[in-house]
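Appendix B, record 7
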Amino acid sequence: LHASSLAATAARRNGIRATDPRCPANGVKALIAVGLFGRGGRRPAILLDLTGPSPHTFCGLGAAQEICGGRISPMRVLAPQSLVWYCEVLMSAFDVSVIVPYVNGHTDLRDCLTALRQQENARVEMMVVSRKGPAEDGKVREQFPDAVVIPVAGDISIPEMRAMAIGKASAPAVAVIEDHVIVPRDWAWRLIAALDEGHDVVGGAIENAATERYVDWAAFLCEYSGSLPPLPSGPSEGVPGNNVIYRKSVLDRYKAVLAEHKWEDRLHGAMRADGVELIMRPDIVVGHKMHYTVG
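Structure tokens (predicted):
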């Protein structure tokens, strides 16, 4: 789809005049503010930077806000190479499919899904892959009717559970967490915005949210000390498998790797071998609230 055609269509849909006097003469030619309905009727904006490296070069964010009647907050800035990504977002009912393997307790999952429900400025498809059995699955459906519950056999591994959900995800982006991970309200939005910058795989940091017992601290540090902030930002040799987002189109190229049902290091290694950059964003942090037992 040609950029100028996309821009014109976006402008018409949102009542934006290409010659709006509140923007510099070349402003709306460079930036088209597109209001998308989010949760609760909020309208986050996508700004298509069609001709230059920075939206501030052409039209201040304040002017764009005024043009759209204050309906666009916060801003999403898409580079020209992200136009196809933008089209995928427009055609999808969700911005991101979040995969949650359900293997621990119901309280853990309840807290996890409650946090996902509270995401701001992002349309989240909650995908619960459950090996807990029909009774537990029924509880999840009753408490979270907006979640997609995918029942699996009790002996299915977590990597296989993830692969099954990836195959069923409907959004143009797929994020993976765990049933004992608690995400902040802006988590999905910020990961999606990182993809908007042109990245294919983005991971964040992990902090311990089970802080009252030494055994929980010890187990957490053994497994996640390398994912604790502070961490360097940018291209990385690896990113966590339980605080990560992928473009779905990129994941689809690795169906054979996913079918091996191995942990994320195998997938990420295959991606790096093909030249796919793994981007670390240590400022996008989740809480790992796992209670361990000894013995």
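Remarks on this record: The chain is about 35% helix and 20% strand. The two ends are 59 Å apart (CA to CA).
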